[in-house]
Amino acid sequence: xxxxxxxxxxxxxxxxxxxxxxxxxxxxxxxxxxxxxxxxxxxxxxxxxxxxxxxxxxxxxxxxxxxxxxxxxxxxxxxxxxxxxxxxxxxxxxxxxxxxxxxxxxxxxxxxxxxxxxxxxxxxxxxxxxxxxxxxxxxxxxxxxxxxxxxxxxxxxxxxxxxxxxxxxxxxxxxxxxxxxxxxxxxxxxxxxxxxxxxxxxxxxxxxxxxxxxxxxxxxxxxxxxx
Length: 227
Prior knowledge:
Structural class: mainly alpha
Oligomer: single chain
Distance between the termini: 32 Å
Helix content: over 70%
Number of helices: 10
Radius of gyration: 30 Å
Shape: rod-shaped
């Protein structure tokens, strides 16, 4: 959920809290409770939808992280083999290209890790005949290539999930519905109370404005401390 959306949720909750505190005033308009119930339901659905999206993203992140750890675990012996081979043959350029420890790989960004993995696999393939004594074989290279491809696919899926508009459509619709309830019903009902309850009406407008959220939260915290 974006910061703007969270601010809206906080505003909705503040409005409902204000109305609940003034039940005696709004009780004269029967439809008020119906609109309040509709808004409460919409807010709860927004929270459930956001929780579901967040859970899916979290699970995908965990899965990608596990694949990344597996990739690093299998890259380390290949980098080590290439480095020791280069050192034994006094191949300085190859030594510089393969001077990686596990901690180096862990600190890399995903894109950089993929680039280094592709490079190490390419270098190992070029020298495969000379790396057998360093315990690197075609089978081990095939294995790490498979893990690398899985990691790339996992990242693509994660990115696609994060930017997918289809996953966010229900949230957009629910926010639109909530805004409609406020403007079409609650705002109208409050206008009917404006003349006889000017102070309550002004507080409603103040609460309704998301720009006042920080002040509203600070006031609520102060009231809680005083209780």
